[in-house]
Amino acid sequence: MIRALLPILLFAPQDPEILRPDPPKVERSGPQWKIGLSAAADLPDETVVQVRLLPVLLRFYEDQASLRWSEMESGQPVRRSVVQQKKLALRAQLPGLRRLVVVWSLDPKAQPQGVTLDRGFAPVRSSYLLGSLSDRLKPFRSSLDEPPRLYSRLLELLKQMDEIDRSGSDRGIPAWSSSLASFRHRCDEEISSGPFTASIGLLDSVAGDAATYVSWLKSRRVAEKKPSNSGGSDSENAQNDNPTGDQPPTGGTSGPTAHGRKDNRDIRSDTAANLRKRLDPFAKLRRAEMLLTLAAEALELLEAGKAAPAGPLLDAASLVEGRLKDEKEPLKPLRDALATLASGDPAMRKSATDSLKLWEATTAKLAP
Q1: Residue 358 β-bridge partners
Q2: How far apart are CA 285 and CA 29, in angstroms?
Q3: Which of 9, 126, 247, 323 is most buried, taking the most CB atoms under 10 A from its CB?
Q4: Distance, CA of 247 to CA of 76 (rounded, Å)
Q5: With a threshold of 0.85, does the pTM exceed it?
Q6: pLDDT tens, 204-243?
Q7: pLDDT, tens digit, for every residue of 314-368?
Q8: How far apart are the C-alpha atoms of 158 and 264, rounded to whole Å?
């Protein structure tokens, strides 16, 4: 079913008449969305307009042990749409996201020959909530148990990695590398189609470091088997210790990765034991990711300012509570907030919204 969505303009163009985005059309395609974008454009035909589609996802900041909803700009391609008869159009297929930010921009220097622009516009940013509540929660329900399954599989792979490290033999590396590649492929599939990008992203990040460590280990062993040159220089000896030829990082930082990790560090420290330690927050991360996803949906209903059917959300909440059996009423703040939907009392709804936001902020912090 095609649905038109109401845009929330975040930044207005210099001239609001130049580019006017239409509400996108969204259709569920398996675990993903087919999205049709269009806009009216008071620009010459053949003008090239750049379009960026920024997923809004829960991002795990590993160094801060916290989760936050963030626009994921890293790795997102710049798409292009060409003006034809004062119209722009673009189609895309994206993961089953909750929310998407669309940025339209104009680069006068990137225009084809013959196109002359006498005016432009500042980037237009629009935020869209995609699909219906029921459609958004379908991948949440179907993928609910995938993160712990992948977590258990990664622990098995790290155990095998430890055995390879201790054995001094490369015999098991090919089979292990193949299994790890299959694991990372599965992670990619889940990240591209499911809602648990933070927890599975952590698993994939650790798996990537495991692959790099074993590759380094194999290269080091090859270097150690080569006949040593007596009187070799210090630089040659350093090369044997670091076969890539690059100076290994020593704990500095080069900024966060897509999953919030600071990745500029000495590869030699990424032993199986240390990588397992990086997985210590996984249980808390998975719990917070489930609760924050439901809290975000509840806040959408509360802030809509009118009674809305919360049945799909309550059903999803029951599933989550089933996974958190050891906790007493883990979703009580959310259920209490949803109970105000039918009240019609704006003050009660505002109080419930404020309480839910406070609970959301507390849940996002994983540190004890």
Answers
A1: none
A2: 28
A3: 126
A4: 30
A5: no
A6: 999 999 999 999 999 988 888 777 654 554 444 444 444 4
A7: 999 999 999 999 999 999 999 999 988 877 788 888 999 999 999 999 999 997 6
A8: 21
> Is the Cα torsion angle 351, 354, 358, 359 positive or negative in sign?
positive
Q: Determine the Cα–Cα distance for residues 106 and 111; give it in Å rounded to an integer.
A: 9
In the chain, how many H helices and how many E strands? 10, 11
* The pair of three-digit structure tokens given for residue 269, joined into one six-digit string: 């420290």
Distance between first and last Cα of the chain: 44
Task: Tell me the one-letter amino acid at 4.
Answer: A
CB-based burial, 265-283: b 16+ in 10 Å, e otherwise = bebeebbbeebbebbebbe
SS3 104: strand
Would you kindly state where each structural domain of the chain is located, as residue ranges?
3-131, 143-278, 283-363
Q: Which residues of the chain have pLDDT under 50?
A: 1-14, 230, 233-262
Cα of 58 vs its chain's centroid, Å: 6
Q: Return the amino acid letter for 219.
A: S
Burial of 31 (0-12, 13-18, 19+ CB in 10 A): middle
Distances (CA, A) of 123 to 71, 73, 181, 187: 16, 15, 40, 34
Q: Where are the beta strands (DSSP E) in 72-201?
A: 79-82, 87-95, 99-105, 124-129
Give the HSE-up count for residue 208: Cα atoms under 13 Å, Cβ half-sphere: 15
Tokens representing 46 are: 């053949």
What amino acid is encoded at 313 in this protein? L
